[in-house]
Amino acid sequence: MTEIKNLSSRLYELLKEKKLMISTAESCTGGLIGKTLTDISGISAHYGYGFITYSNEAKQNLLGVKKETLASFGAVSAETVKEMATGALLKSGSDISVSVSGIAGPGGGSEEKPVGLVYIGIKSKDNDAKSHRFIFAGTREEVRLETVKKAIELVIEEIENIR
Q1: What DSSP state is assigned to residue 136?
Q2: Whether residue 161 has pLDDT greater than 90
Q3: N or C: which end of the chain has fewer CB within 10 A?
Q4: Distance CA 150, CA 32 (A)
């Protein structure tokens, strides 16, 4: 947890320095990224929107994920997290957004999509949406915490590359 807190503090400093707003769109983490960010005093100047879209309907209705995307690729896919991140950015007016969708376990996995499979999407105003694929090991809680950590790391990396 200390590592996540340190990363969150670093992210906050970058958001402040570059005067950016962030939004989140979470499925498998159920709001843990938002919780981690809101643990930081003063973050409200840089974080205004967090979408928890656990169901496919929520992904469609709140973020504009296409029904065809979900039907063709599934909720846990590169295509879906890119649409989630794009939707969060557009709906919130933020400068950068992060999205996550995965199979935290202990059930729900398959040979094609095993437990621990997570996709993280990043979208900034200046760049196309990107997706990153990971397979994390551990319990449900460990998979979710690793997802939060990696999502924050990827946002930091993206912000560092923004002019």
Answers
A1: -
A2: no
A3: C
A4: 12
**Quick one: tokens of 49?**
């929107």
Residues 6+ apart with CB under 8 A from 71: none
- Please say whether the beta carbons of 115 and 104 come within 8 A: yes
Among 104, 72, 71, 70, residue whose Cα is nearest residue 84: 70
Residues 6+ apart with CB under 8 A from 55: none
Collect all residues with Cβ–Cβ distance below 8 Å to 91 and sequence separation of at least 6. Answer: 23, 49, 51, 62, 63, 64
User: Could you tell me what percent of the chain has a pLDDT over 70?
Assistant: 99
Comparison of pLDDT for 162 and 66, the residue scoring more: 66
Q: What radius of gyration do the chain's Cα atoms show?
A: 15
3-state SS, 65-113, equals CCHHHHHHHCCCCHHHHHHHHHHHHHHHCCCEEEEEEECCCCCCCCCCC
Coil, helix or strand for 157?
A: helix
Residue 163 pLDDT exceeds 70: no
Give residue for tokens 């929107």.
49
Number of neighbours of residue 38 by Cβ within 10 angstroms: 14
Contact 103, 28 (CB under 8 A): yes
